[in-house]
Amino acid sequence: MLEPSATPKLELRNITKWYGPEGTGVLAVDDCSVSVQKGEFVCVVGPSGCGKSTLMTVGAGLEEATHGEILIDGKPAGKPGPRRSVVFQKFALFPSETVAQNIKFGLQMTNVPRDEQERRVQQQLEIMGLTQFRDSYPSQLSGGMQQRVAIARALAMQPEILLMDEPFGALDAQTRTILQEEVQRLSHQMHYTVLFITHSVEEAVYLSDRVIVMSRRPGRIKKEIQLPRDVAWKRGDIEQAAEHPEFIEARREIWALVREEIMAA
């Protein structure tokens, strides 16, 4: 378990988001506060339409909150930049660019020196198992491989914070499982600071150190659940993990909370 520091790496403080005029539009998120410590993996789950993706896009700086603030290391986060990288459900790759060129894109936009660009691209190709696809185009890759490229592009920026919005939601079950295990392995080895949005309770329990459950719309924080960090099932594959008593109990508790919100809606 991570010891909480005095200042979270990422803090979403009292976030409220209206779409349309305040008071008469759609209230998507209402007074939500979420913090992520350095090196912590936090998942947000909740019923469909509860505002969890809105919370992530606000946290990434891609949308403005109606009320509240976003802090990094206790200071205003400001506009989107290389400190925060985002991975979406849709791969958002450039179809006319190769795998290597897609990974390199953010590095070019932020004027990283050319030799450093190449070093980081090669590193991510190796980490994500993409070396032999370096010169391939997105249309030549499976959905799972395309998402590996999207993740590699985000990690190549060496962000302080990684925000992931249902990144495996569009993948088939087998590919999703493999990528869950890859992200778990990388997180355990590299200690990334991650805010991860998912509708899968099992995925949240498998990946995260802490799970935040949101209520039905307007989204509010219903409960936070701390999970064990350094136990055997956190380093095994998801099938082994799912048989662990602590995994089963956490999944049961979280699903009961989400189900309650679904039924109430």
TrEMBL record:
Signal peptide: none annotated. The keyword Transport applies. It comes from the Bacteria. Gene3D superfamilies: P-loop containing nucleotide triphosphate hydrolases. One of its GO terms (molecular function) is ATP hydrolysis activity. Residues 10-241 form the ABC transporter domain. It holds the Pfam family ABC_tran. Coiled coil: none annotated. Keywords: ATP-binding, Nucleotide-binding, Transport. Belongs to the ABC transporter superfamily. This is NitT/TauT family transport system ATP-binding protein.
